[in-house]
Amino acid sequence: MTDEIYRASTTAPVNIAVIKYWGKRDPKLNLPTNSSLSVTLSQSDLRTHTTASCSPSYPSFDSLLLNGSEQDVSGARTQACFRELRSLRRNLEGQDASLPKLSTLPLKIVSENNFPTAAGLASSAAGFAALVRAIANLYELPSSPTDLSRIARQGSGSACRSLFGGYVGWEQGKEVDGSDSVAFQVAPESHWPEMRAIILVVSAAKKGVSSTTGMQTTVATSSLFAARASDTVPKRMKQMQEAIQIKDFETFGKITMMDSNSFHATCLDTYPPIFYLNDVSRAAIKMVEAINAAAGRIIAAYTFDAGPNAVIYYLQENEAQVAGLFKAFMGEKDGWKGTRGDAIQASEEAFGKMKGEVGVAVDLLKEGVSRVILTGVGEGPVETKESLIDEKGQPISTSS
Amino acid sequence: MTDEIYRASTTAPVNIAVIKYWGKRDPKLNLPTNSSLSVTLSQSDLRTHTTASCSPSYPSFDSLLLNGSEQDVSGARTQACFRELRSLRRNLEGQDASLPKLSTLPLKIVSENNFPTAAGLASSAAGFAALVRAIANLYELPSSPTDLSRIARQGSGSACRSLFGGYVGWEQGKEVDGSDSVAFQVAPESHWPEMRAIILVVSAAKKGVSSTTGMQTTVATSSLFAARASDTVPKRMKQMQEAIQIKDFETFGKITMMDSNSFHATCLDTYPPIFYLNDVSRAAIKMVEAINAAAGRIIAAYTFDAGPNAVIYYLQENEAQVAGLFKAFMGEKDGWKGTRGDAIQASEEAFGKMKGEVGVAVDLLKEGVSRVILTGVGEGPVETKESLIDEKGQPISTSS
């Protein structure tokens, strides 16, 4: 083996669940108490770019540089991903003695997000999906996205869904070892490419309870949680997959909103209660309700993860009545600029119908939303030649 | 029968539930989907004063004057109360021919609250309890408070609990006609007279969904509601009654907080979602959590009805660490004045422990709380000679 530098790079997407993951039946393996389903978002708007590299010339420890700052890789979750991937590589090396023994070399990983981490957007899903995909590329593993989802899940539960593009389920599974708790593609992005999303980034006074801590407190203390996991979600998983198959936005939207509310209801039913929604989040809900009332049907659907940011799904054909109205009512915000934002026009008819009743909500959004992100359904991880590590093994910064 | 004016007067209290009533199994009879439990609050702070009167000289229709304005009495709920009470009077008249036939005479009722209706405090409980108790007094009915609770329930569900003082349960009952859905006294106020309450009246931008509409939408759409009604509340009813019997404030407080959160969780799980708590309500929760953390145990317990106002229960012995801290942190508010408010001093030790971490919450409370009401557990309806109708049948205004 020479002192060669081995490198491979990928990008991976963020996903925003429409049926939420909340609660672990096994915290160590990140095995969930219920299945979940998400939409993978376009990587031109939100993605993690990761280069995995290994070399005999590297210092003898694994390292991870994220957005220019060194991360601790000693945590059980990162270690589980490294261990599983090395084990797969070791199997290959065992079968073919001509392969370089990459599994024995220290890993150097460099990773960058194309969105501000301060925005509070769940970046761990894209992060662990990119990490696992990049190392799998480096090791030239024949593993399928489903196989890799099993590994990424151990890094961060929802990361398993970012191994696929389009509409992605995560089967909770029954096995104790988690072998059947994997992601699967419900439909590729090409099946229903018209799905758009607007993200309202809400400036929170303070970060709320971490999702890892929060979900376990919910499982332990909420008297309503069991009904969600055992009855509510299984029914919705079925309905949601059907809605996606037949491209029925009204059902998709209604279940999305109901499931977000159900998740936050179990947070409120936790002791002590967990609040992720604030008055600005509620103003976004009010706006979506007014938009749907003006349209006479569900054309917009809100969902909230473990924070106050609103993600609002809609179809391209209704852009003027959804994104257009948010733009018209909220006025200047970072994110409306650029080709996509400039093209968005409001429906004047809907604006007229709504303006009498959304005054308070609009004031709250103007004050509380720091930026908007316009995006839509997108593809899964993409291998790239653009490396974040140069041929000498040094990190290359692409940050602006 | 002469043209005599028959009159009787009572006062009746407000009650604030610690296990919430939300959901009707029979909307017409106000039969609930779960039992509930409340603390009756002192009438020196919050009460309805009602005089019921009848006379052959009155115009031939029933009337109700509340705080100086004529009310519609044609609604099914008020009519049900009138009908049931007249029926009981008619039975008496049938048994004793010497009794004047009051059941045939028009009713004139005058009612006044000693608290601002604009405060958004649920006044319908005190209102219907006073109405039913005053007419029962007028008719000289031998009915027990339990019998009257069955009638008041038909006016407003939670009114049935205002027929008793102290700690009061409302048994959901099983009968179709509602005959076993009545209030009962868990313990009189003298059993645990140290229970105090501070009410933070929050200025809401707009009145939320009415509880009558809201609770039926919850029953129809929340997937988590059934578990609350069938499992959560029955367990808590038992625990709460035991806690009251043995005067265990920590259990009383914990269940109070959990049940308020459970109720609001089912509101959030309603479609479309119902929000009664706002950022000011959450600031009150944060303060209570900080107060309990500083004390190292539960000495304060928040609860919220169908609105943003916080009611915080505590024991007299902890006044400096509960009401005192709210006073010290919030500063000048309408309601701190007067003998009771002036006497309240903050615990300096607790103030010091908390001040570093409640800044944001304190700002929200200062801005969003319009007044405080200091009160405590109190007695049930009290007959009074002070009449709101003079000997000529004319209303007397006592309003300031």
Automatic annotation (TrEMBL), chains A, B:
Q: Which Pfam families is this protein grouped with?
A: MDD_C, MVD-like_N
Give the record's GO biological process terms. Answer: isopentenyl diphosphate biosynthetic process, mevalonate pathway; sterol biosynthetic process
Q: What class of enzyme is it?
A: lyase
Database matches in SUPFAM superfamilies: GHMP Kinase, C-terminal domain, Ribosomal protein S5 domain 2-like
The answer to whether keyword Cytoplasm applies is: no
Q: In which pathway does it act?
A: Isoprenoid biosynthesis; isopentenyl diphosphate biosynthesis via mevalonate pathway; isopentenyl diphosphate from (R)-mevalonate: step 3/3
Catalytic reaction annotation:
(R)-5-diphosphomevalonate + ATP = isopentenyl diphosphate + ADP + phosphate + CO2
Q: Which residues form the Diphosphomevalonate decarboxylase-like N-terminal domain?
A: 12-183
- Domain named Mvd1 C-terminal: residues: 197-382
* Superkingdom of the organism of origin: Eukaryota
GO MF assignments: ATP binding; diphosphomevalonate decarboxylase activity
Matching entries from Gene3D superfamilies are given as: 3.30.230.10, GHMP kinase, C-terminal domain
Its keywords, alphabetically, are:
ATP-binding, Lipid biosynthesis, Lipid metabolism, Lyase, Nucleotide-binding, Steroid biosynthesis, Steroid metabolism, Sterol biosynthesis, Sterol metabolism
A GO cellular component entry from the record: cytosol
Looking at the keywords, is Chloroplast present?
Answer: no
Q: Which InterPro entries match?
A: GHMP_kinase_C_sf, Mev_decarb, Mev_diP_decarb, MVD-like_N, Mvd1_C, Ribosomal_Su5_D2-typ_SF, Ribsml_uS5_D2-typ_fold_subgr
Identify the EC number(s): 4.1.1.33
Q: Which family does it belong to?
A: Belongs to the diphosphomevalonate decarboxylase family.
UniProt protein name: Diphosphomevalonate decarboxylase
> Lineage, please?
Eukaryota, Fungi, Dikarya, Ascomycota, Pezizomycotina
